[in-house]
Amino acid sequence: MPNHGPFDSRAGTAARPGSAATARPGAAGLGLTRMRFGIDLGGTKTEIVALDRDGALRLRHRRPTPPDYPGIVETIAALVAQAERETGTRGTVGIGIPGSLSPATGLVRNANSQALNGQKLDRDVAAAIGREVRVTNDANCLAMSEAADGAGAGHRTVFAVIIGTGCGGGIVSSGRILDGPNGTAGEWGHTPLPWMTAAEFPGPRCWCGRHGCLETFLSGPALAADCDGPGARDAGAIPARAAAGEDRAAAALARHADRLARALGLIANILDPDVIVLGGGLSNMQHLYAKVPPLMARHVLGDVARTPIVQARHGDSSGVFGAARLWDSA
Ligand SMILES: [Zn+2]
């Protein structure tokens, strides 16, 4: 398949002349002259924002995400129609999903929202709203947003990670999402924890079928289980418990920070990003920004290890803002 650019949806749609999604009103040529709509398709809520040409937030709405696929497409179309009515303008549409489109089939894969898997989401939404849409995973959206006007602004290459209920990553370089022939660039969460100790090897079994994925060590549920045993899933109180003097909580946080440092050290050795941005629920744990950089330096080859590690500026909105920016690069 020829390379149609960094976005899954373009590869998926452009390869299918005659599909509904090729009815294209020249959205890419609109540049920043019109409104940009971003949609974050979450497991429970679907959110839309409108960013104007200056990047200012003009509108935000949320609706519950329906359990069925036709309902999801209808909800997205209804949110776009509502947003266009309220802003009085037509705009480009980008969608962030907790999964990706297969470059081979154009169908959604690896979404934790089961209704989406195996569906041609970009083409179905395009047919419903009468224009091409761009779809990518939520970590790429985080990277896009933070690189544009967030914690990664002014840096050339931004590696953004989500550490929350899951663990993912995205790369934006010179304003463009890096993606590749497999659509897997930045898929950091399902690579193994590097420099495993004997006690860590081979690591917990992951939902993806592998053992020892970073997600099984770094996500919120993984931290909770490491601290409080199998079945524990909420890591939210662990920092406060550690601060109150609980040794078990402090030890779990220390292991978690060391593992994150190893995982990011590997990224520095391969990609050497100019900045690493942390998003997702665990990015609120402030000790990470002090503890991880010196730990990471041990794993970066050579005599320099100065990659800044910073918290996402747009917080929970990074994904939806990034989705709105999916048409920023041609
Ligand atoms: Zn995995």
TrEMBL record:
Region (Disordered): 1-27
UniProt cross-references to SUPFAM superfamilies, sorted A to Z: Actin-like ATPase domain (SSF53067)
GO MF entries: kinase activity
Keyword Ribosomal protein: no
Keywords in alphabetical order: Kinase, Transferase
Protein name: N-acetylglucosamine kinase
Organism, as annotated: Roseomonas fluvialis
